[in-house]
Specification:
- The mean pLDDT is 97.
- The chain has 415 residues and is α/β, with parallel strands linked by helices.
- Helix 8 links the parallel strand 6 and strand 7.
- A 7-stranded mixed β-sheet has the order 2-8-7-6-5-3-4. Strands 9-10-13-12 form a 4-stranded antiparallel β-sheet. The chain has a two-stranded parallel sheet with strand order 1-11.
- The chain has 2 domains: 151 residues, Aspartate Aminotransferase, domain 1, CATH 3.90.1150; 231 residues, Aspartate Aminotransferase, domain 2 (3-Layer(aba) Sandwich), CATH 3.40.640.
- Helix 11 packs across helix 12 and helix 12 packs parallel to helix 15.
- It starts with 9 loop residues before the first helix and ends with a helix.
- It contains 15 helices and 13 strands.
- The chain is globular and about 65 Å long.
- It binds pyridoxal-5'-phosphate.
- The site of pyridoxal-5'-phosphate has 13 residues, from helix 4.
Length: 415
């Protein structure tokens, strides 16, 4: 069987997520996934298991503590493997916002007064504010603006902004409003040709396919695990050769123990262990759809990513098409998904109704969505959209169904 012939078994997928059976949530179409996703049973089981007998201080010699520590290590190791990083190249922290603040503090070391830092106006504020704040240390902040006619961040524009003084570039892999997938590999290559450290924000990308960080070539990459079917934690990847030399942000005695040097406080233990459940869910997805058991973890992830992308493309394109054709609606970003050029994160506004009115109407019809600026307020400012009312955002992931999206279109027809 070729990959193209294999379709995601949506019934199997949904059977793994207890939210689809729970009386509170089961009748809802859940389209606020870019805010935070549901979790599969494996994650809940791992959390419960940890909390039952091993919720003690880890890494002591008695069995409950030993197992707790081993499982914490296992979760980190599995996630490092899943994104093609080394164990000492990833850290799990409380959120992407926290991780990037700590990282920006550590990266000050590379800046002299007058050096330049490039940020975009398409990013979530988590990947803008920490870098803009470096102006307090004398850095000049340069903004890479997206093109208003197509809503894209264009590399030709970035080329014009880079100078011999540019030291840091922070850019999103996928905007949580526009949805386009930026060519991070190409942007990374350009950054490195100019000796620039590049930080990629993968928060809106990773729920649609775990990244291979070495292939992307970025120096740092971050995503929020609570949007990739896990608990409220976030992962930060950093290249070993840079991490090793970063000034310690943690307790003094940990000064040589990267990556803990940029993980003050460390992660929540029970949530860290529950990440094993995400890996198990992916393993189960793989086994359910594919026969070849000899593949390595990255090859398996690649196949699952394709399966997920194909499904997302099928369910998201009719919505994009519908919104795009309606003259009273303004679709943000590309009007079609093809070849993974866009995530199924679909933002729009209306000429006739406020985003709040539309969102409330959808909620009345048991469609869980939201109107907001989603902390991408510079992006909305650039688009000329009121930040208080924001956009209506329909954000799908692979567990959404065709039936749900058909219902959405029917409900949208009513106003
Ligand atoms: C694209 C993007 N980047 C960063 C963040 C911040 O993530 P966290 O909530 O983990 O700080 C978000 C959160 O919604 C996001 O959508």
């Amino acid at each position: 069987m070729t990959l193209e012939n294999i379709k995601l078994d949506i019934d199997y997928v949904r059977s793994q997520f207890p939210a689809f059976k729970d009386p509170l949530s089961k009748d809802w179409s859940f389209f606020e996934n870019a805010g935070g996703s549901y979790v599969p049973k494996n994650v809940i089981d791992r959390l419960t298991e940890f909390m039952t007998a091993t919720k003690v201080q880890p890494y002591a010699e008695y069995p409950m503590s030993k197992i707790a520590g081993n499982n914490m290590d296992k979760a980190t190791e599995l996630f490092a493997k899943m994104i093609n990083a080394k164990n000492n190249e990833i850290l799990i922290g409380g959120s992407t916002s926290i991780n990037l603040y700590v990282l920006s503090n550590a990266l000050k070391k590379y800046l002299s007064p007058g050096d330049e830092v490039i940020v975009t106006n398409q990013d979530h504020e988590a990947n803008i504010s920490p870098w803009r704040r470096l102006s307090e240390n004398g850095a000049k902040i340069v903004e890479w603006k997206f093109n208003l006619s197509n809503h894209e961040l264009e590399i030709s524009e970035l080329e014009k902004l880079i100078t011999s003084k540019t030291k840091i570039l922070a850019v999103t892999h996928c905007s949580n409003i526009v949805g386009s997938i930026n060519n991070l590999k190409k942007i990374s290559d350009l950054a490195h040709k100019n000796n620039i450290i590049i930080i990629g924000d993968g928060v809106s990308y990773a729920p649609h396919g775990f990244p291979n960080v070495k292939e992307l070539g970025v120096d740092f990459y971050t995503f929020s695990l609570y949007k990739t079917y896990g608990p409220h934690l976030a992962l930060l990847y950093g290249k070993e050769e840079i991490l090793r030399d970063l000034p310690n942000q943690n307790h003094e005695f940990l000064k040589n123990q990267y990556p803990y040097t940029i993980n003050p406080g460390g992660p929540n233990h029970e949530e860290l262990v529950s990440l094993i459940g995400i890996y198990e869910y992916y393993e189960n997805l793989y086994k359910h759809h594919f026969d070849d058991t000899n593949l390595g973890i990255l090859q398996k992830i690649d196949k699952i990513n394709n399966l997920i992308s194909n499904h997302e493309e099928i369910i998201a394109n009719p919505i994009l098409d519908y919104i795009n054709k309606r003259e009273d609606l303004r679709l943000i970003g590309k009007s079609t998904i093809e070849n993974k050029n866009r995530a199924p994160t679909i933002s729009f506004t209306s000429k006739k109704k406020s985003s709040k009115e539309i969102s409330n109407f959808l909620i009345k019809n048991k469609i869980a969505t939201r109107n907001d600026n989603f902390y991408a307020w510079r992006c909305l400012n650039h688009l000329g959209i009121d930040n208080d009312d924001g956009v209506v955002r329909i954000s799908l992931v692979h567990y959404n169904t065709k039936k749900e999206t058909e219902k959405l279109i029917k409900v949208l027809e009513q106003f």
